[in-house]
Amino acid sequence: MDVEIGLRVDGEPHRLVVDTRTTLLDAMRERLGITSPKKGCDHGQCGACTVLLDGRRATTCLALAVAHDGAEIVTAAGLADGERLHPIQQALLDHDGLQCGYCTPGQVCSAVGMLAEAEAGWPSHVTADLSGAVELTDEEIAERMSGNLCRCGAYANIVAAIREAVR
């Protein structure tokens, strides 16, 4: 069964008709031509398809497009301000936090979402003090980014980039 939905991706409104079984990732990539989120595992385990969905990080390969009619989606491509990169994007470049680049859009969106979660005081599995402020140690950053895999193994540089962007 086909349904018409509306999505706002990187500030641009889109109307499209999708089958009710279409994932948000496939709707963006195949129907809208938005290729920043990548199809990695297609099981929600690698994080390559991570975007900011209504302000929170989400894996789009597991999200049905019809469930997000009217959603505001920001991809890694939509984070830059014109030619000026988002601080996370710039830090990843400065710290060589990417190699093949396949996971990078998901890493960027996850890092931006993770920083918002930490700023809101949301604890992670390794958060030592649950009373409020979250200190973003390397261990804390690594735990919060653990849903994003990098086949090249650039984790040390990714953590260093995020640590610098926090400053």
TrEMBL record:
Assigned keywords, A-Z: 2Fe-2S, Iron, Iron-sulfur, Metal-binding, Oxidoreductase
Biochemical pathway: Alkaloid degradation; nicotine degradation
CDD domains named in the record: fer2
Domain called 2Fe-2S ferredoxin-type: residue spans: 3-79
UniProt GO molecular function: 2 iron, 2 sulfur cluster binding; metal ion binding; oxidoreductase activity, acting on the aldehyde or oxo group of donors
Domain of life according to the entry: Bacteria
Matching InterPro entries: 2Fe-2S-bd, 2Fe-2S-bd_dom_sf, 2Fe-2S_ferredoxin-like_sf, 2Fe-2S_ferredoxin-type, 2Fe2S_fd_BS, Aldehyde_Oxdr_Iron-Sulfur, Beta-grasp_dom_sf
The keyword Transmembrane is annotated on this UniProt entry: no
Pfam families recorded: Fer2, Fer2_2
Record PANTHER family: OXIDOREDUCTASE WITH IRON-SULFUR SUBUNIT, OXIDOREDUCTASE, IRON-SULPHUR BINDING SUBUNIT-RELATED-RELATED
Protein known as: Aldehyde dehydrogenase iron-sulfur subunit
Organism: Gandjariella thermophila
